[in-house]
Amino acid sequence: MFTGLVEEAGIVVGCEVQSRSASLTVAAQLVSDGIQIGDSVAINGTCLTVVAVNGDQLTFDAVPETLARTNLGALNPGAKVNLERPLQVGARLGGHFVSGHIDGVGVVTNVAPDENAVIYTIEIPGSLRRYFIEKGSVSVDGVSLTVAGIEGNQFTVWIIPHTREVTTFGDLKVGDRVNLECDLLGKYIEKLLEEREITASV
User: Fold this and answer.
1) Contact assessment for residue 147 and residue 23, using Cβ atoms and an 8 Å cutoff
2) 8-84 domain in CATH 1.10.1790.10?
3) Predicted pLDDT at 95
């Protein structure tokens, strides 16, 4: 379980992409501290397992399901990625509960500066539209954010200077693909209501 509070922006130093899978190696000065093989790390919001450690370089395997649902398959050496270690029991929860299981990929359609903020508009798959509500939570490339507005299949988020400096948001541009994880609460409520309807109809 994660919080969506990115610890650092790592750098991809190796990317071996097969037809439907990949091996990623990321340089991470902070996140690599004390890390062990088998530990979990969120890369752009995607929970992956550390399979090798070489100094501050961490290697991860991405299976076909991961590449089909995320933007990790498009990464190249030199790319920045958002990194976060799992939430520790008893630690402050500054963002929201993020599982690291990506629901789909969105596309940045507009980037608009406004005073000290930058407004990002992101188009989402139609199948995810029902999970977005104004002032609700969403994880975008592993960053816990508040939905500022939603219209049709697009939503907006306002990004402060600090977030742009310490995450990949400072490099995002129109056309870029971003990993989306919808709020867990909405998905659980939907499932419970579906089960209630099934039970009532029996």
Assistant:
1) no
2) no
3) 75
Beta carbons of 131 and 199 less than 8 angstroms apart: no
Helix, strand or coil, per DSSP, at residue 91: coil
10-residue averages of pLDDT along the chain (202 residues): 94 92 96 96 98 97 94 94 89 81 97 96 95 95 97 97 96 97 88 79 62
Cα 82 from Cα 59, distance rounded (Å): 15
Q: Please answer whether residues 6 and 142 qualify as being in contact, where contact means their C-beta atoms are separated by less than 8 angstroms.
A: yes
Listed in sequence order, the residues at least 6 apart from 192 whose beta carbon sits closer than 8 Å to its beta carbon are: none
Looking at residue 201, what is its pLDDT? Answer: 67
Which pLDDT does position 185 carry in this prediction? 85
Q: Of 36, 24, 30, 141, give the one whose Cα is nearest residue 82.
A: 141
In whole angstroms, give the CA distance from residue 143 to residue 172.
Answer: 13
The SS3 assignment for 170 reads helix
**For position 56, what pLDDT does the model report?**
97
CATH of domain 104-190: 2.40.30.20
Each domain of the chain, given as residue ranges in start order, spans: 8-84, 104-190
CA–chain centroid gap for 32, Å, is 19
Q: What is the pLDDT of residue 101?
A: 94
